[in-house]
Amino acid sequence: MAAKIVVACGSGVATSATVAYKVKKLLAADGIEADVEAVAVADLDEALKDADAYVAVVRPDGEFDVPVFNGVAFLTGMNQDEELKRLADAVRDK
């Protein structure tokens, strides 16, 4: 079964979709199957109900029941390798 990863930004359109595509591609290259969904922050609570991880493009507000990862790292490439390793370790074998 594929891991479910939620990526959220303000509108759930441009930035989160870009990060979601990149995360899915990077995880696939590492042999990890994942369903990566881009959503608006307003829809985050509902989207996280059955998620394995949350990649936050904007600073997360509050606490979550799933591990949270820095989406800006995937957008800019800065610290991307470290964040990808953390994410892969969290969702591997889900």
UniProtKB/TrEMBL annotation:
InterPro entries: PTS_EIIB-like_sf, PTS_EIIB_2, PTS_EIIB_2/3. Keywords: Sugar transport, Transferase, Transport. Residues 1-94 form the PTS EIIB type-2 domain. The keyword Transferase applies. CDD domains: PTS_IIB_galactitol. It holds the Pfam family PTS_IIB. This is PTS sugar transporter subunit IIB.
